[in-house]
Design goal:
Layout: H1 5-21, E1 27-28, H2 29-33, H3 47-57, E2 61-64, E3 70-73, E4 108-115, E5 122-132, E6 135-146, E7 151-158, E8 164-173, E9 176-178, E10 203-205, E11 212-215, E12 227-229, E13 231-236, E14 243-250
Parallel strand pairs: 4-14
Antiparallel strand pairs: 1-2, 2-3, 4-7, 5-6, 5-8, 6-11, 8-9, 8-13, 10-12
Length: 251
Amino acid sequence: MFFNIRGILILLCAVVGMAFTGSVRAENLNQKYGPSWDCSYITVGMPIYDACKPCQDQKLDFFRDTDTTGHCVPRDGADAQQEITPTPQIQPPAQQTLQPAPPKPRVQYTIRVCNKTNKGILAVALGTNEQIADVMHLTMRGWYSVANGGCRDVAVRDFGNFDEMPFIIHAQAGNNYWPEKVWPSNEDWSGEEWMQNRNAKPNVCVDPLNAFNYYADPPASCTSDKERAFIIEWVEKTEGASMVVKEVDFQ
């Protein structure tokens, strides 16, 4: 009859496992299993292994008292009453209570527009890049009126998880536009691409005659008479500040 190696190993593991999971009685395990036996036959991590290993390290026999405890005896076969070195009791590590991380301070920024054009009332359109569930979304809004020679706070937004945040802005007064021209572009783009392209002047669809508020990622296509060029602006967090003011001057 032939046995494969894997089958023999499984059989041996089963026999050793039965020796430590069946009914347990006090006995000298070195005497019971012979001179070739040592603590390595016990599964590492079991309490009985932790009791046996110090005896082996001192070249003493291991006398098992229960299925989890035991003590060391001399190699001449002394009984349980001739204890030499007590086996240290292994105490489970104390449970540590995890403290929640302190919440990150909420930092916001204000976009302030100043009209220094001397062209009359300035109509402003604004696109803000906002983090929603780790995704950047572009929201387009217009029109904000800014009196000649005056300033107006047109939006308050959060930095989210970023140390800086971009937004796009366009202004017009009569037939005057800032920036002045619509830049030709046939490529789609998203708010996230602003992080890599600071100098772009994206074309965005607006309603030239009415107030509007819509999501655009990428911006919807439209006819050229409703396209406007926008400037990309950046605002950075300030150390220790909960509110940062970004002023955009149109001249």
